[in-house]
Amino acid sequence: MTTKLELYSDYVCPWCYFMTGRIERLYQNFDISISWRAFPLHPETPEQGQKLEEIYARYPYPTKDMLEHLRRNARALNLPYCERTMTFNSRLAQELGHWAEEQGAGEPFHAAAFKAYFVDHQNLAKRDVLISLIEAAGLDVDEGVEVLEKRSYSDAVDRDWERSRALGITAVPTFVIGEAKLVGAQQYRALAQFAEAHGVAQWAR
Prior knowledge:
Helix 5 packs antiparallel against helix 6. The protein has helices at about 15-20, 20-30, 50-55, 65-75, 90-100, 105-120, 125-135, 140-150, 155-165, 190-195, and strands at about 5-10, 30-40, 50, 85, 175, 180-185. About 50% of the residues lie in helices and about 15% in strands. By secondary structure, it is of the alpha+beta class. The protein has a 4-stranded mixed β-sheet. The chain has a two-stranded antiparallel sheet with strand order 3-4. The chain starts with a strand and ends in an 8-residue tail after the last helix.
């Protein structure tokens, strides 16, 4: 029987972006369904964005060192990664992400959102960028615009944020099976061991 895994993530989280290849590998090797869940990484970010140096000022490491660490990880994973100076508010993109999941287009939408932010350095709070994500995922633009205008999936994102707090999640990505959690960017081996430890069946080879 297919096991359900919840993935708490945010489109502006570099470590979530870095995990995409390993998550795809998990799909290939295990009988698992992955439900994407929205997490509020920097919900206070204004629509026009915020400088990364302001975000990283709260950490005990120089910003330039942290940015270089991220660049090295991207190179090691052979992932495109632009030079970024700003972070942007991802709330509306998260609402569209929920809608995309319901339409069976979650994976292409999430991929498009990560690309827009980490490769093209686009502001995920802007309407034209959000519409481009809808198009990239092959979804109906008119319907997507209606979702944006009516904020149809605002409650769904609120529920995800509330559940993340109830589960004690403070960092992403976080993987959840039942009440068990695996926190942070993990090597594939750790993901596989987590799945096996919680009864996820491997595909027969």
